[in-house]
Amino acid sequence: MNKLENKAVDFDDVNSAEVFRNIGYQIIDVLAEELTKAKENIGSPVLDWQTPQEQLKFWQDDFKGDKIEDPLLLFRNIIKSSINMNMRGNLGHQIAAPHPITALTSALIAHLNNGMGVYEVGMAGNAMEKIVIDDLSRIFGLPDDASGFVTSGGSLGNLTAILTAKIKYLRENPDVKMDQLVVIVSEEAHFSIDRTASVIGLRKDNIFKVPVDADFRMRTDLLEDFHQLADREDKKIFCIVGCSCSTSTGSFDDLADIADFAHKYKIWFHVDAAHGGPSVFSTKYRHLLNGIHYADSIIIDFHKMMGVPSLSTAVIFRHSWYSNLTFSQDAKYLWQDQKSEEWYNSGKRTFECTKPMSIVHIYTILRMYGYDIFKEQIELLYGLAKNFAEDLNKRSDFEVLIEPQSNIVCFRFINAKGDLNILNRKIQQELVRDGRFYIVGTTASGQYYLRVSLMNTRTTEADLLGLLNIIIEKASEIMQNEGYFLCKPQLI
Fold first, then answer.
1. 242, 272 in Cβ contact below 8 A?
2. Angle in degrees, CA 162, 163, 164, rounded to 5
3. Most buried one in 84, 104, 167, 325, CB count within 10 A?
């Protein structure tokens, strides 16, 4: 007997178009139900909290089970065990509530499974990528020869840009040693900058972190002091990073001031605009990015404020040849011409070879809605944050850290005598367990604050009012149980 006849898997069934169609219709119906809940049901749970141990036990038991013929139950269990980013009470991390069309582009991308490193395995994707990057370069005000690509996330984007800056500097200054290289960042810069420095071989003490002002923006008045420090220590500043905006507080650095400093000393100027970059589409908020047109490199995440599934980040260079500087290794099995600069072979320019066609998401959104969708999204969510902060400032129970510059609001409950840091941490934990809202926390100036990131165009002022009511309820319960003293808060 032919051993192949004794098979456990029927590939005709696995690859069946009809089976795929039937399952597909069902999962689309399930996801559509979730979207309906997200729009219509105020107070629908964002997450069904379980401990790590409970989750692990559940999925261990599931994994031991018999093979399933209908995966719909599995899919429903995954949904039940996950945060629904589309829910109006999801106010946590800077991750998009993805526009529904991108669930379908995700299926298309997965089905095609075209890596984009080589042109013939990414014909559409590479062409789309060039069009979108070129258009973004124009919108940011960069020179005509600006170029770039899309990569998987802001951390990899920052790594690529800063590594390029290092390579360029060392080629132009061959006598400089690695242990002399310095990068300047704000104290509020994303942790990926520290990781990047470690990956590219920088000494930890060669990350010069500039203090921030009362609004958590880089104190550019101190930059000359840091340049003098570098001179005294015989160190060379090869790159300075501007935050647009910071992850913790949503604050925008003064890019024009940073650009002046960078130009004066011929330092690479990188802008981490992963979150705040889409402000460029709004005439009302574009001023937050004043000076970005001087940047040598910019990153902007499509999967934050542009409604795209994770991960998808544009890396844009002031000059096209910069984008070919970093990852120009030989790969004879991929490209016939190893040295030529070819926009259509993106593997020559990115760390990734088999990178996904995530560009299809943003290209589709632009073709369906144009840039107006990002303008209106920015203005809606930034405006909602400002209104929320104004409401908080009117209440004696709460304290706002700073007036929000973006869609991020940091605040805390203060109507208590006792350790407010511990109290607010416990409030955040209780909110997670409750499940109706999901928010996170951050530490600023040594104090713990609750942090809301308004990413979802469905979220309303009424939802935020509900959040404050629940915070007051949770605070009261905690204080009654743990001996805090306060004036009894009044429900809103």
1. yes
2. 90
3. 84
Position with higher pLDDT, 342 vs 210 = 210
The segment(s) of the chain belonging to CATH 3.40.640.10 are 114-370
Q: Is the pTM of this model over 0.85?
A: yes
Nearest to 132 by CA among 343, 354, 335, 273: 343
Most confident option among 93-102, 291-300, 310-319: 291-300
Residues listed for the chain:
492
The three-state secondary structure class of 399 is: strand
d(CA 470, CA 430) in angstroms, rounded, equals: 10
For helices 123-139 and 359-369, the axis angle rounded to 10 degrees is: 60
Task: Tell me the sheet residues that pair with 207.
Answer: 183
Alpha helices in 70-100 (DSSP H): 72-80
Phi, psi of 482 (to 5 degrees): -120, 10
Q: How far apart are CA 285 and CA 268, in angstroms?
A: 25
AA letter at 152 = S
Q: How far apart are the first and last CA of the chain?
A: 77
Omega into 222 within 30° of 0, i.e. cis?
no
What angle (nearest 5°) sits at the alpha carbon of residue 164, between those of residues 159 and 168?
155
| Structure tokens that stand for 13 in this block | 């069934």
What is the DSSP code (8-state) at residue 85? T
Would you state the structure tokens that stand for residue 355, as one six-digit string? 């990178």
Element (H, E) at 253: none
In terms of average pLDDT, the best of 82-91, 115-124, 258-267, 418-427 is 258-267
The CATH architecture assigned to 114-370 reads 3-Layer(aba) Sandwich (3.40)
Residues of the chain with CATH 3.90.1150.170: 41-47+83-97+371-492
The one-letter amino acid code at 188 reads E
d(CA 91, CA 270): 29
| Residue keyed to tokens 């690529």 | 160
Highest CATH level, class, for 41-47+83-97+371-492 = alpha beta
Amino acid residing at 111: H
Strand order in the sheet with 313-317: 147-151, 313-317, 297-301, 268-272, 236-243, 181-186, 207-210
Of 317, 261, 314, residue with least CA distance to 291: 261
Check residue 354 and give its pLDDT: 81
